[in-house]
Specification:
Order of helices and strands: HEEEH
Helix content: 40-55%
Strand content: 15-25%
Number of strands: 3
Shape: rod-shaped
Oligomer: single chain
Distance between the termini: 24 Å
CATH architecture of one domain: 2-Layer Sandwich
Number of helices: 2
Largest sheet: 3 strands, antiparallel
Strand order of the largest sheet: 1-2-3
CATH class of one domain: Alpha Beta
Structural class: alpha+beta
Radius of gyration: 19 Å
CATH superfamily of one domain: Nucleoid-associated protein YbaB-like domain
């Protein structure tokens, strides 16, 4: 099967497209908020945090736990959105094939 030059060429092309897509995911972002926008997280399609915004009104030294909860919720939502973005981009490339590590 791997002795077929066309198959090898197709695999190399697919690998090149996947690398390009992964680079593109690094520049694409998603944003998630919690607490009605009190906390916002911007994350790339490669699950890297680009920005964290916190409304000063939710920074209450007497209620740090609430801010922590908002941060967890925003990070989890941003991660979900980022993973969905990556899955949609890479899924289109692989035809829905589940490839470990992608």
């Amino acid at each position: 099967m791997m002795n077929n030059p066309n198959m090898l060429k197709q695999m190399q092309q697919m690998q090149a497209r996947m690398l390009k897509m992964q680079e593109e995911l690094g520049s694409q972002t998603v944003e998630a908020t919690a607490g009605g926008g009190a906390v916002a997280i911007v994350m790339t399609g490669q699950q890297r945090v680009r920005e964290v915004r916190i409304d000063p009104a939710v920074v209450d030294p007497q209620d740090v736990e609430m801010l922590q909860d908002l941060m967890v919720a925003a990070f989890n939502e941003a991660l979900d959105k980022s993973q969905q973005l990556a899955a949609s981009k890479l899924g289109a490339l692989t035809g829905g094939l589940k490839i470990p590590g992608l």
